[in-house]
Amino acid sequence: MSDTATFEYKGKKIEFPVVEGTENEIGIDIKTLRASAGVITLDPGYKNTGSCESAITYLDGEKGILRYRGYAIEDLAEKANFLEVAYLLIFGELPNKEQLDKFHSDIKANSEVDEDVKKIVDSFPRTAHPMGVLSSLTSALTAFNPSCVDINSEEDMYNAIVKIMGKFPVLAAWTLRRRNSKPYDYGNASLGYVENMLYMMFKKPNEEYKLNPVVVDALDKLLILHADHEQNCSTSTVRIVGSSHAGLFASLSAGVSALWGPLHGGANQAVIEMLEGIKEDGGDTAKYMEKAKDKNDSFRLMGFGHRVYKNFDPRAKIIKKSADEVLGDLGVEDPVLSIAKGLEKQALEDDYFVKRKLYPNVDFYSGIIYRALGIPTEMFTVMFALGRLPGWIAQWREMRLKKEPIGRPRQIYVGENLRPFVEVSKR
Ligand code: SDX
């Protein structure tokens, strides 16, 4: 007899089955709650509510653990490359050389974007935020690739996956090139996946693009660290949009928009803007610590805190170490790095932050590396999206293959009770 949980309300006792995951996480399956007890649960922000069972990513927020398909993030960041990790997340196993080579060549064979998409890119103001442009272009792909994924066909699913893995970096690069008034480039098929991202973003029309291995390695590692993070806001968005059987590209476009928010992926841009503001204001970190703690001040210490991690975000640890290495290798002096380290030190010794278990998250140091790599601030969240793409795909694929029901939360109504209509002449 599997474990159960007893719910009692107004003298009525109901048993609900308990689900235990492979890492001993416990969930109470309340699928029959409303039918059997006539009540629903209420959990704004879903802080205590699981939306699914998933075999893709495991987090332990208390212990600061992150694993993709059982592999520790520390191992993957150190020993794997981003395309290997993308394959692992999507298909569940690390690829052998033949599988990886085929995956990459299929992606390259599908990386062309219809020339007419350039007209859409050109229609945006150069000052448009790249995340708004990228979300629109991703959605526009559905117009140029109208066939919906037949989830009963592994081949159809695979083809859709290599299509978006090929085209998304092109769209991201074109977004930047539009801002910089540079011609749009399809990249160079002889390059690696991450190398080609850099090539498409930064190649000047009149000179060879020289790849810096330090930059390539740093970006590859950052993309791995951003690749998936279980049911975060943007992934949950991709899942719920996909649960209506909207297409993969439409679901991903929604995920890009959700990621844009400064409380989520947009935090990496907000962190740098915050650090720059503190630098401009004389570098008085203590003043900003007080502002972050002041309930009457809307200022938050961006890059700090996390819904799940109540200990160090393991990605932040890796990125902080990488920031020192990359800036050292590139000979870049960035004053905001010492401001960031000063804030971190003060926060880790401050009761307000310690009591609320607020630690640096993935966004706190990542922008410092992106900046050292020559990536403009407004493109930081696009880089997050480039990393998160395989995670979104993997989660969408898992949800569709499991034939999950359409996502449709309930609510508790707190508005007006029934009242008679009143003619306008009598109001
Ligand atoms: C990402 O979910 C994921 O996995 C996301 C992500 C991924 O890989 O997909 O990890 C990526 O989005 C990382 C988070 C990036 N966002 C930021 O850095 C923005 C700054 N941080 C926050 O706004 C906040 O910490 C959240 C949004 C990340 C988490 O918010 P929660 O879980 O809803 O917690 P909360 O807002 O209720 O905060 C709890 C308390 C509050 O104080 P009290 O009301 O208890 O007195 O902590 C305080 C908050 O005011 N607090 C902060 C703070 N974050 C929380 N106070 C000052 N500065 C902060 N950054």
UniProtKB/TrEMBL annotation:
<dbReference type="GO" id="GO:0036440">
    <property type="term" value="F:citrate synthase activity"/>
</dbReference>
<keyword id="KW-0816">Tricarboxylic acid cycle</keyword>
<keyword id="KW-0012">Acyltransferase</keyword>
<comment type="similarity">
    <text>Belongs to the citrate synthase family.</text>
</comment>
<dbReference type="InterPro" id="IPR019810">
    <property type="entry name" value="Citrate_synthase_AS"/>
</dbReference>
<dbReference type="InterPro" id="IPR016143">
    <property type="entry name" value="Citrate_synth-like_sm_a-sub"/>
</dbReference>
<protein>
    <recommendedName>
        <fullName>Citrate synthase</fullName>
    </recommendedName>
</protein>
<dbReference type="InterPro" id="IPR024176">
    <property type="entry name" value="Citrate_synthase_bac-typ"/>
</dbReference>
<dbReference type="InterPro" id="IPR036969">
    <property type="entry name" value="Citrate_synthase_sf"/>
</dbReference>
<dbReference type="InterPro" id="IPR010953">
    <property type="entry name" value="Citrate_synthase_typ-I"/>
</dbReference>
<comment type="pathway">
    <text>Carbohydrate metabolism; tricarboxylic acid cycle; isocitrate from oxaloacetate: step 1/2.</text>
</comment>
<dbReference type="Pfam" id="PF00285">
    <property type="entry name" value="Citrate_synt"/>
</dbReference>
<keyword id="KW-0808">Transferase</keyword>
<dbReference type="InterPro" id="IPR016142">
    <property type="entry name" value="Citrate_synth-like_lrg_a-sub"/>
</dbReference>
<dbReference type="InterPro" id="IPR002020">
    <property type="entry name" value="Citrate_synthase"/>
</dbReference>
